[in-house]
Amino acid sequence: MIRVENIDKSFGELEVLRDISVSFLRGKTNLIIGRSGAGKTVLLKILIGLIHPTSGKVFYEDTNFYDLNKRQVRKLRMDVGMLFQSSALFDSLTVDENIRFPLDMFTKMTHKEKSIRVNYCLERVNLEGINNKYPSEVSGGMQKRVGIARAIVMEPKYLFCDEPNSGLDPKTSITIDKLIQEITRENNITTIINTHDMNSVMEIGEKIILLEGGNLAWEGTSTEVLSEGNELIQNFIFASPFLQRLKNMALK
Fold first, then answer.
1. Helix or strand or coil: residue 180?
2. With b meaning 16 or more CB within 10 Å and e meaning fewer, what string describes 78-98?
Protein backbone atom coordinates (compact mmCIF):
# COMPACT_ATOMS: atom_id res chain seq x y z
CA MET A 1 0.00 0.00 0.00
CA ILE A 2 1.02 3.59 -0.62
CA ARG A 3 -0.39 6.33 1.55
CA VAL A 4 -0.07 10.09 1.21
CA GLU A 5 -0.75 12.51 4.03
CA ASN A 6 -1.46 16.22 3.67
CA ILE A 7 0.44 16.68 0.41
CA ASP A 8 0.81 20.25 -0.79
CA LYS A 9 2.78 21.31 -3.84
CA SER A 10 3.43 24.80 -5.13
CA PHE A 11 5.63 26.13 -7.89
CA GLY A 12 6.37 29.65 -6.80
CA GLU A 13 3.01 31.37 -6.38
CA LEU A 14 1.16 28.60 -8.22
CA GLU A 15 -0.49 26.13 -5.83
CA VAL A 16 -0.93 22.83 -7.68
CA LEU A 17 -1.94 20.39 -4.92
CA ARG A 18 -3.72 21.21 -1.67
CA ASP A 19 -3.79 18.94 1.39
CA ILE A 20 -4.09 15.61 -0.46
CA SER A 21 -4.54 12.61 1.84
CA VAL A 22 -5.41 9.24 0.30
CA SER A 23 -4.43 5.56 0.35
CA PHE A 24 -3.67 3.45 -2.73
CA LEU A 25 -4.59 -0.18 -2.11
CA ARG A 26 -2.46 -3.27 -2.61
CA GLY A 27 -3.74 -5.78 -5.14
CA LYS A 28 -6.04 -3.16 -6.66
CA THR A 29 -5.98 -0.91 -9.71
CA ASN A 30 -5.93 2.61 -8.26
CA LEU A 31 -6.84 5.32 -10.79
CA ILE A 32 -6.02 9.03 -10.63
CA ILE A 33 -8.37 11.02 -12.84
CA GLY A 34 -9.14 14.67 -13.45
CA ARG A 35 -9.15 17.38 -16.08
CA SER A 36 -5.93 18.71 -17.60
CA GLY A 37 -4.19 20.89 -15.03
CA ALA A 38 -5.92 19.21 -12.07
CA GLY A 39 -2.59 18.01 -10.63
CA LYS A 40 -2.61 14.34 -11.66
CA THR A 41 0.88 14.24 -13.16
CA VAL A 42 2.36 16.29 -10.32
CA LEU A 43 0.89 13.87 -7.77
CA LEU A 44 2.22 10.87 -9.70
CA LYS A 45 5.71 12.42 -9.82
CA ILE A 46 5.59 13.08 -6.07
CA LEU A 47 4.60 9.46 -5.43
CA ILE A 48 7.54 8.23 -7.50
CA GLY A 49 9.94 10.76 -6.00
CA LEU A 50 10.69 12.70 -9.18
CA ILE A 51 9.66 15.92 -7.47
CA HIS A 52 9.38 16.77 -3.78
CA PRO A 53 6.17 18.00 -2.19
CA THR A 54 6.14 21.42 -0.59
CA SER A 55 4.81 19.68 2.51
CA GLY A 56 3.31 16.33 3.47
CA LYS A 57 4.39 12.69 3.53
CA VAL A 58 4.40 9.69 1.19
CA PHE A 59 4.44 6.27 2.85
CA TYR A 60 5.39 3.03 1.12
CA GLU A 61 3.81 0.67 3.62
CA ASP A 62 5.06 2.25 6.89
CA THR A 63 8.14 3.99 5.47
CA ASN A 64 8.11 7.69 4.64
CA PHE A 65 9.77 7.92 1.23
CA TYR A 66 11.12 11.40 1.93
CA ASP A 67 12.93 10.25 5.07
CA LEU A 68 15.10 7.82 3.08
CA ASN A 69 18.73 8.40 2.14
CA LYS A 70 20.04 7.80 -1.41
CA ARG A 71 20.98 4.18 -0.75
CA GLN A 72 17.57 3.41 0.72
CA VAL A 73 15.81 5.16 -2.17
CA ARG A 74 17.78 3.08 -4.67
CA LYS A 75 16.80 -0.09 -2.83
CA LEU A 76 13.13 0.91 -2.79
CA ARG A 77 13.19 1.73 -6.50
CA MET A 78 14.02 -1.92 -7.18
CA ASP A 79 10.48 -2.65 -5.96
CA VAL A 80 8.95 -0.12 -8.38
CA GLY A 81 7.86 -0.71 -11.98
CA MET A 82 6.96 2.10 -14.37
CA LEU A 83 4.91 2.02 -17.57
CA PHE A 84 5.40 5.27 -19.46
CA GLN A 85 2.85 7.00 -21.68
CA SER A 86 4.98 6.52 -24.80
CA SER A 87 6.28 3.09 -23.69
CA ALA A 88 9.78 4.69 -23.64
CA LEU A 89 11.49 1.72 -25.24
CA PHE A 90 15.08 2.06 -26.43
CA ASP A 91 14.91 2.09 -30.23
CA SER A 92 18.45 0.74 -30.61
CA LEU A 93 17.77 -2.28 -28.38
CA THR A 94 15.81 -5.41 -29.19
CA VAL A 95 12.67 -6.32 -27.28
CA ASP A 96 14.74 -8.81 -25.29
CA GLU A 97 17.36 -6.20 -24.43
CA ASN A 98 14.71 -3.63 -23.47
CA ILE A 99 13.06 -5.98 -21.00
CA ARG A 100 16.43 -7.23 -19.72
CA PHE A 101 17.67 -3.67 -19.07
CA PRO A 102 16.49 -3.37 -15.42
CA LEU A 103 17.95 -6.81 -14.64
CA ASP A 104 21.31 -5.70 -16.05
CA MET A 105 21.18 -2.49 -14.03
CA PHE A 106 20.03 -3.75 -10.66
CA THR A 107 20.70 -7.49 -10.30
CA LYS A 108 23.53 -10.00 -10.36
CA MET A 109 21.47 -12.66 -12.09
CA THR A 110 23.22 -14.92 -14.56
CA HIS A 111 22.55 -14.60 -18.29
CA LYS A 112 20.45 -17.77 -18.15
CA GLU A 113 18.42 -16.52 -15.20
CA LYS A 114 17.76 -13.23 -17.01
CA SER A 115 16.68 -15.06 -20.15
CA ILE A 116 14.24 -17.20 -18.17
CA ARG A 117 12.75 -14.11 -16.52
CA VAL A 118 12.51 -12.16 -19.79
CA ASN A 119 10.80 -15.06 -21.54
CA TYR A 120 8.36 -15.46 -18.67
CA CYS A 121 7.41 -11.77 -18.86
CA LEU A 122 6.98 -11.96 -22.64
CA GLU A 123 4.77 -14.99 -22.23
CA ARG A 124 2.73 -13.19 -19.55
CA VAL A 125 1.94 -10.34 -21.94
CA ASN A 126 1.26 -12.78 -24.81
CA LEU A 127 4.30 -11.84 -26.89
CA GLU A 128 6.28 -15.06 -27.00
CA GLY A 129 8.99 -15.27 -29.63
CA ILE A 130 9.51 -11.60 -30.48
CA ASN A 131 12.75 -11.30 -28.46
CA ASN A 132 14.90 -10.30 -31.41
CA LYS A 133 12.57 -7.73 -32.93
CA TYR A 134 13.15 -4.00 -32.50
CA PRO A 135 10.44 -1.64 -31.22
CA SER A 136 9.98 -0.17 -34.70
CA GLU A 137 9.11 -3.64 -36.00
CA VAL A 138 6.06 -4.13 -33.76
CA SER A 139 2.74 -2.30 -33.38
CA GLY A 140 1.96 0.39 -30.83
CA GLY A 141 -0.11 -2.04 -28.78
CA MET A 142 2.71 -4.57 -28.78
CA GLN A 143 5.16 -1.85 -27.73
CA LYS A 144 2.90 -1.08 -24.78
CA ARG A 145 2.87 -4.76 -23.80
CA VAL A 146 6.67 -4.83 -24.06
CA GLY A 147 6.63 -1.82 -21.73
CA ILE A 148 4.49 -3.79 -19.28
CA ALA A 149 6.87 -6.75 -19.50
CA ARG A 150 9.80 -4.48 -18.69
CA ALA A 151 7.84 -2.87 -15.83
CA ILE A 152 7.21 -6.23 -14.15
CA VAL A 153 10.54 -7.94 -14.90
CA MET A 154 11.90 -7.01 -11.45
CA GLU A 155 8.76 -8.44 -9.78
CA PRO A 156 7.75 -5.04 -8.37
CA LYS A 157 5.56 -4.44 -5.35
CA TYR A 158 4.46 -1.11 -6.83
CA LEU A 159 3.50 -0.35 -10.43
CA PHE A 160 2.95 3.14 -11.83
CA CYS A 161 1.25 3.63 -15.20
CA ASP A 162 1.11 7.04 -16.89
CA GLU A 163 -1.70 7.18 -19.46
CA PRO A 164 -1.19 3.53 -20.50
CA ASN A 165 -3.84 3.72 -23.23
CA SER A 166 -2.61 6.90 -24.86
CA GLY A 167 -2.58 6.56 -28.65
CA LEU A 168 -4.22 3.12 -28.67
CA ASP A 169 -7.44 2.06 -30.36
CA PRO A 170 -10.37 1.09 -28.07
CA LYS A 171 -9.95 -2.68 -28.51
CA THR A 172 -6.22 -2.56 -27.71
CA SER A 173 -6.90 -0.25 -24.78
CA ILE A 174 -9.26 -2.83 -23.27
CA THR A 175 -6.58 -5.51 -23.71
CA ILE A 176 -3.99 -3.35 -21.92
CA ASP A 177 -6.43 -2.54 -19.09
CA LYS A 178 -7.27 -6.19 -18.49
CA LEU A 179 -3.62 -7.18 -18.62
CA ILE A 180 -2.64 -4.56 -16.03
CA GLN A 181 -5.50 -5.58 -13.77
CA GLU A 182 -4.69 -9.31 -14.05
CA ILE A 183 -1.01 -8.75 -13.26
CA THR A 184 -1.95 -6.51 -10.33
CA ARG A 185 -4.19 -9.17 -8.80
CA GLU A 186 -1.91 -12.11 -9.52
CA ASN A 187 1.10 -10.48 -7.88
CA ASN A 188 -0.71 -8.40 -5.22
CA ILE A 189 0.85 -5.21 -6.58
CA THR A 190 -0.09 -1.67 -5.57
CA THR A 191 -0.88 -0.30 -9.03
CA ILE A 192 -1.49 3.41 -9.61
CA ILE A 193 -2.73 4.58 -13.01
CA ASN A 194 -2.92 8.16 -14.23
CA THR A 195 -5.60 8.17 -16.94
CA HIS A 196 -8.12 10.12 -19.01
CA ASP A 197 -9.67 6.94 -20.40
CA MET A 198 -13.28 6.62 -19.21
CA ASN A 199 -13.44 2.98 -20.25
CA SER A 200 -10.56 2.31 -17.85
CA VAL A 201 -12.43 4.14 -15.11
CA MET A 202 -15.58 2.08 -15.56
CA GLU A 203 -13.94 -1.28 -16.25
CA ILE A 204 -10.96 -1.48 -13.88
CA GLY A 205 -11.51 1.38 -11.40
CA GLU A 206 -11.23 -0.55 -8.15
CA LYS A 207 -10.13 2.65 -6.38
CA ILE A 208 -10.64 6.01 -8.10
CA ILE A 209 -9.61 9.44 -6.95
CA LEU A 210 -10.75 12.57 -8.75
CA LEU A 211 -8.58 15.67 -8.57
CA GLU A 212 -10.21 19.02 -9.25
CA GLY A 213 -8.23 22.24 -9.10
CA GLY A 214 -5.53 20.61 -6.99
CA ASN A 215 -8.00 19.23 -4.45
CA LEU A 216 -9.15 15.69 -3.78
CA ALA A 217 -12.74 16.08 -4.98
CA TRP A 218 -13.99 12.48 -4.82
CA GLU A 219 -12.88 8.92 -4.16
CA GLY A 220 -14.68 5.66 -4.65
CA THR A 221 -14.98 2.69 -7.03
CA SER A 222 -16.32 2.22 -10.56
CA THR A 223 -19.46 0.62 -9.12
CA GLU A 224 -20.12 3.75 -7.07
CA VAL A 225 -19.82 6.15 -10.00
CA LEU A 226 -23.42 5.69 -11.19
CA SER A 227 -24.96 5.77 -7.74
CA GLU A 228 -22.75 8.48 -6.23
CA GLY A 229 -24.44 11.85 -5.96
CA ASN A 230 -21.24 13.90 -6.22
CA GLU A 231 -21.78 16.40 -9.02
CA LEU A 232 -18.08 16.73 -9.86
CA ILE A 233 -17.56 13.00 -10.54
CA GLN A 234 -20.82 12.82 -12.49
CA ASN A 235 -19.88 15.79 -14.67
CA PHE A 236 -16.37 14.44 -15.27
CA ILE A 237 -17.30 10.85 -16.09
CA PHE A 238 -20.31 11.72 -18.23
CA ALA A 239 -18.94 14.84 -19.90
CA SER A 240 -19.75 13.68 -23.44
CA PRO A 241 -23.38 13.58 -24.68
CA PHE A 242 -22.91 9.92 -25.70
CA LEU A 243 -21.88 8.84 -22.21
CA GLN A 244 -24.67 10.94 -20.71
CA ARG A 245 -27.17 8.99 -22.82
CA LEU A 246 -25.67 5.69 -21.64
CA LYS A 247 -25.98 6.86 -18.05
CA ASN A 248 -29.61 7.79 -18.52
CA MET A 249 -30.32 4.41 -20.10
CA ALA A 250 -28.60 2.61 -17.20
CA LEU A 251 -30.69 4.49 -14.65
CA LYS A 252 -34.03 3.71 -16.33
1. helix
2. eebbbbbbebebeeeebbbbb
**What local confidence, expressed as pLDDT, does residue 196 receive?**
84
* Helix, strand and coil in the chain, % to nearest 5: 45, 25, 35
pTM above 0.85, yes or no: yes
- 1-78+162-252 CATH fold: Rossmann fold (3.40.50)
Report the C-alpha dihedral over residues 212, 214, 216, 222, rounded to 10 degrees: 50
CB contact burial 140-177 (16+ within 10 A = b; e otherwise) = ebbbbbbbbbbbbbbebbbbbbbbbbbebeeebbbbbb
List, in sequence order, every residue forming a beta bridge with 81; answer none if it has no partner.
Answer: 159
Q: By CB neighbour count within 10 A (0-12 exposed, 13-18 middle, 19+ buried), where does 107 fall?
A: middle
- β-bridge pairing 158-162 and 80-83: parallel
List pLDDT tens digits, range 214-246: 999 999 888 887 676 667 777 776 665 545 565
Q: 33 and 196 in contact (C-beta within 8 Å)?
A: yes
Beta-carbon count within 10 A of 222 CB: 18
Give yes or no for a contact between 9 and 167, defined as CB atoms under 8 angstroms apart. Answer: no
Domain residue spans in the chain? Answer: 1-78+162-252, 80-155
pLDDT at 182 over 70: yes
For residue 128, pLDDT beyond 90:
yes
